[in-house]
């Protein structure tokens, strides 16, 4: 029997329940996976709250790492005993568990140099950082990125990766302590979003030009400043809604702000092609294994302390990545 989180209704962190569940044998295209570490992502709170609607009852969590215990018919790219990691969306929901059945397709083989805990802390964040830095916009050395939530799990990876490529990163953070963390991981400058005018500071730091690329995972509360921070014909990337959904965008706004571009990407569309997923994962693993990118795990929780973990991440008190130990 496995222990697994189950949602019978949506709501606050208190709705997360725990049950003993049978796992059984994998069917065609599935594997039975024993988890070693499970990732905590802000998106988990969206499933729990009902912002991302799914049929109930259901599991929770979309990212983990572990060992393949058994493979079903037709599974060829992983074998029993393989170390793997995964991330996804509805197709991987149920990661808050000790053991589970899961489709084999999302599984990524994990190099021996990457510990399970590191993998659980970085697979979603790292692949997100990979497409933001390597795929979404043609940046050149010296270009400027405005990075919101720069001391968060994705932010710290983006900042380090961007610095490796010679980009200038201006990071927004909520506290001086987080500012120090962001600067230590590649941010050239930081802006205290609670006390400073973000758009004005960006213009001051760029001699009035604005940022070539704005990466906004916060949403509602940062949207206006993000629009005002993009350079003429630059790109605003809205890839999260930590403070709530972004307001509607009217086409004339984009012209008035300097013929800017806006996109709302999803990781799933950047890893849907197996070859592209393998390429992005390979780059990520190489950087982490070589120590060029550090994965900062600053919060560790027992799996059944998920309710408290959700309270912490929603309160904005976490720094870097968080994981559950199994």
Describe this structure in words.
With 326 residues, the chain is an alpha/beta fold. It folds into two domains: 2-124 and 271-325, Medium-chain alcohol dehydrogenases, catalytic domain (Quinone Oxidoreductase, Chain A, domain 1); 137-264, NAD(P)-binding Rossmann-like Domain (Rossmann fold), CATH 3.40.50.720. The protein contains ten helices and 15 strands. It has helices at 42-49, 116-134, 153-164, 176-184, 198-205, 223-229, 251-256, 267-270, 274-289, 306-315, and strands at residues 2-6, 17-21, 30-39, 64-71, 83-86, 99-103, 108-109, 144-147, 168-173, 189-192, 211-216, 230-238, 261-263, 297-302, 321-325. The strands form three sheets. Strands 3, 4, 5, 6, 7, 14 and 15 form a seven-stranded mixed sheet that branches. Helix 10 (306-315) links the parallel strand 14 (297-302) and strand 15 (321-325). Helix 2 (116-134) packs across helix 3 and helix 2 (116-134) packs across helix 9. It is globular, with a radius of gyration of 20 Å. The two termini are 14 Å apart. The mean pLDDT is 96.
List the helices and strands and how they pair.
Layout: E1 2-6, E2 17-21, E3 30-39, H1 42-49, E4 64-71, E5 83-86, E6 99-103, E7 108-109, H2 116-134, E8 144-147, H3 153-164, E9 168-173, H4 176-184, E10 189-192, H5 198-205, E11 211-216, H6 223-229, E12 230-238, H7 251-256, E13 261-263, H8 267-270, H9 274-289, E14 297-302, H10 306-315, E15 321-325
Parallel strand pairs: 8-9, 8-11, 9-10, 11-12, 12-13, 14-15
Antiparallel strand pairs: 1-2, 3-4, 3-6, 3-15, 4-5, 5-7
Helix pairs in contact: 2-3, 2-9, 5-6
């Amino acid at each position: 029997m496995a222990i697994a989180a189950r949602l019978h209704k949506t709501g606050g962190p208190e709705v997360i329940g725990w049950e003993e569940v049978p796992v059984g044998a994998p069917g065609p295209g599935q594997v039975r996976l024993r988890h070693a570490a499970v990732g905590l992502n802000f998106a988990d709170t969206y499933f729990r709250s009902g912002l991302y609607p799914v049929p109930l009852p259901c599991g929770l969590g979309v990212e983990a790492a572990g060992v393949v215990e058994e493979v079903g018919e037709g599974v060829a790219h992983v074998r029993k005993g393989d170390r793997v990691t995964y991330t996804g969306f509805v197709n991987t929901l149920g990661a808050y568990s000790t053991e589970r059945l899961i489709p084999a397709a999302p599984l990524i083989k994990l190099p021996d140099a990457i510990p399970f805990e590191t993998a659980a802390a970085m697979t979603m964040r790292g692949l997100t950082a990979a497409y933001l830095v390597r795929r979404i916009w043609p940046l050149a050395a010296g270009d400027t990125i405005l990075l919101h939530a720069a001391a968060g799990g994705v932010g710290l990876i983006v900042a380090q990766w961007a610095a490796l490529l010679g980009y200038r990163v201006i990071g927004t953070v909520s506290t001086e302590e987080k500012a120090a963390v962001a600067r230590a991981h590649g941010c050239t400058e930081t802006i205290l979003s609670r006390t400073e005018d973000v758009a004005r500071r960006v213009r001051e730091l760029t001699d009035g030009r604005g940022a070539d690329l704005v990466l906004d995972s916060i949403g509602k509360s940062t949207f206006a400043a993000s629009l005002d921070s993009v350079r003429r014909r630059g790109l605003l990337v809205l890839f999260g809604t930590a403070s709530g959904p972004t307001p509607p965008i009217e086409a004339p706004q984009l012209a008035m702000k300097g013929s800017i571009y806006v996109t709302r990407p999803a990781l799933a569309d950047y890893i849907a092609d197996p070859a592209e997923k393998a390429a992005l994962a390979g780059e990520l693993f190489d950087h982490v294994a070589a120590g060029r990118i550090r994965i900062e795990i600053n919060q560790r929780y027992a799996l059944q302390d998920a309710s408290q973990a959700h309270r912490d991440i929603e309160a904005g008190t976490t720094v870097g990545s968080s994981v559950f130990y199994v």
